[in-house]
């Protein structure tokens, strides 16, 4: 799977500093088609509130539209209320409420146990 990224940098006398980034990849869902899956999204705390996150999301949206994705999917920690509100203000739907999806993990210990049967 190939990952892509969007970075926002500021230039200063010493060079540049990355102040925000997003990492994403494309995947396919048989029910809804091609998706842009947002794996990671971060803006340094001291640079929040300046529109950097909005600019990153705009670039991701442009990429999704240009590559004919039907939607963008991502997960957000339940405790991260500011991020949840950030996404909701931009039209995101919480599928855990709407469709009842739950995130699960099978860790390496149990993967090895199942594969040994």
Describe this structure in words.
With 117 residues, the protein is α+β, with helices and mostly antiparallel strands. It has 4 helices and 4 strands, in the order βββαβααα. It has helices at residues 52-66, 81-89, 95-98, 108-115; strands at residues 4-12, 15-29, 33-43, 71-73. A 4-stranded mixed beta sheet has the order 1-2-3-4, with helices on one face. Strand 2 (15-29) and strand 3 form a beta hairpin. The two termini are 28 Å apart. Keywords: Acyltransferase, Cytoplasm, Membrane, Transferase, Transmembrane, Transmembrane helix. This is Diamine acetyltransferase 1. It is found in: Cytoplasm. It holds the Pfam family Acetyltransf_1. Its EC number is 2.3.1.57.
Summary keywords:
globular; four-stranded mixed beta sheet; alpha+beta; 4 helices; 32% strand; 117 residues; single chain
Largest sheet: 4 strands, mixed
Number of strands: 4
Helix fraction, binned, reads: 25-40%
* Overall pLDDT level: 90
Class per helix and strand makeup: alpha+beta
Helix and strand run: EEEHEHHH
What Rg is obtained from the alpha carbons, in whole angstroms?
A: 17 Å
Strand content: 25-35%
- Tally of contiguous helical segments: 4
List low-pLDDT spans: none
Shape: globular
- Strand arrangement within the widest β-sheet reads 1-2-3-4
End-to-end gap = 28 Å
Short description:
This protein has helices at 52-66, 81-89, 95-98, 108-115, and strands at 4-12, 15-29, 33-43, 71-73.
């Amino acid at each position: 799977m190939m990952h892509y990224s969007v970075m926002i940098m500021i230039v200063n006398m010493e060079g540049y500093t990355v102040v925000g980034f997003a990492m994403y990849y494309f995947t396919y869902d048989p029910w809804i088609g091609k998706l842009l899956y947002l794996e990671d999204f971060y803006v340094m705390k001291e640079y929040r509130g300046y529109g950097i996150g909005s600019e990153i999301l705009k670039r991701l949206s442009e990429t999704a539209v240009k590559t004919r994705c039907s939607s963008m999917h991502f997960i957000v920690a339940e405790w991260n209320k500011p991020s949840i509100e950030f996404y909701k203000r931009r039209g995101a739907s919480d599928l855990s409420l709407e469709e009842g999806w739950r995130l699960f993990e099978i860790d390496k210990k149990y993967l090895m146990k199942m594969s040994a049967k």
